[in-house]
Each structure stands twice: as structure tokens, then as C-alpha cells.
Amino acid sequence: MSTKEKDPIEYSISSTYKVNDVIYHKVFDDIGTVLDIGITKDNEKKMTVSFKKTGKKRLIMGVLAKK
């Protein structure tokens, strides 16, 4: 059985993710794993990601562009 990591998904604020997704953040130039999902006090979806180089970060997700 292979222990190869999942191919990372490029992070986009408009996309949604789930726990254990592996993402690539272009600005950080880093790969991380989604640890948990929640909701901000402003009712936006958020996630905590553990990145290899930059550590734990909280990121917003599922935000659609306003027209």
C-alpha cells in the first residue's frame, strides 16, 4: 500500500474544503492539511490548516465575489 500524500488542491477563497484535504497556498508557497472546519462570528466558513513551512493558519473559504 502506498503512503504517498494526496495531490494538493490549490487554495481559493471561493472554494470549500473538508477535513484532511491537502491544499497548496500560492502566497505562502506551502502545502498543508485541513485540520478543522468552522464558522466565523460573521457567519463565514473558516478552516484551520497545518502547513509544512508556515505552521497553523486560519483561512476563510466559500466566499463568493459580490456583484
UniProtKB/TrEMBL annotation:
Query: What is the official name of this protein in its record?
Result: Uncharacterized protein
Protein's organism: Candidatus Wallbacteria bacterium GWC2_49_35
